[in-house]
Design a protein that fits this description.
CATH class of the largest domain: Alpha Beta
Largest sheet: 5 strands, parallel
Helix content: 55-70%
Structural class: alpha/beta
Number of domains: 2
Number of strands: 5
Distance between the termini: 24 Å
Radius of gyration: 17 Å
CATH topology of the largest domain: Rossmann fold
Shape: globular
Strand order of the largest sheet: 2-1-3-4-5
Length: 211
């Protein structure tokens, strides 16, 4: 376990090279890839998320930690495929049509990866039908919509309407976020949840999925 705590600390500190070295060493010693995620990477990102919510860490530090976590995941992925390790859930993610902002969305994606989810990132300027098609294609339990402009927020409602039209609304939880977005707006358009930041989005997703 001491190796695992060293990995966790390296993730929190954002030391990507150490994370890769420690994980490679642990694999060489026969550590289980799934355990390395659940007992090394995820606890690291949980701590990062907690510190971020408590204003003890800021976006640049969170991004550095998330990149360190991703470097560890890159080492683990081939082993996870071999062992057929399943993600805890799937989330389709994107910035809505007409909006080209992606920093917040990217951070949300990294936090979800760090929490053991499979992330299908559709990028920016994504229309409602494309979101609905991706949810269906990947069998995602979650859909994360980001908008940074008040003018693009109505696209979130359009996406929910597209899910309803495709008969998918009851199969997927819709989470929304972005600077102008509020809890009241989420309720108004019938979204399942609102998150003010990336760490809260993961907490809300776990709550919705009961995990």
């Amino acid at each position: 376990m001491s190796d695992f705590s060293a990995i966790t600390k390296a993730v929190i500190a954002g030391r990507a090279n150490e994370v890769k070295e420690f994980i490679s060493a642990a694999l060489t010693q026969g550590a289980d890839p799934g355990l390395l995620i659940s007992e090394a990477l995820i606890p690291g990102m949980n701590t990062v998320g907690e510190r971020f919510r408590n204003n003890q860490m800021y976006i640049p530090e969170v991004l550095i930690a998330a990149r360190a976590m991703q470097s560890g995941l890159a080492v683990l992925k081939p082993h996870l495929v071999e062992q057929n390790v399943q993600p805890v859930g799937k989330i389709v993610l994107g910035t809505v049509k007409g909006d080209l902002h992606d920093i917040g969305k990217n951070l949300v994606g990294m936090m979800f990866e760090g929490a053991g989810f499979e992330v299908i990132d559709l990028g920016v300027n994504v229309d409602a039908e494309k979101f609905a098609a991706a949810v269906e294609e990947h069998g995602a339990q979650l859909l994360g919509l980001s908008a940074l402009l008040t003018t693009t927020m109505p696209q979130m409602q359009k996406t929910i309407a597209a899910l309803e039209e495709a008969g998918l609304r009851k199969k997927v939880y819709v989470l929304i976020g972005g600077a102008p977005v509020t809890q009241e707006y989420a309720e108004k358009i019938g979204a399942d949840g609102y998150a003010p930041d990336a760490a809260s989005a993961v907490v809300k997703a776990r709550e919705l999925l009961g995990i």
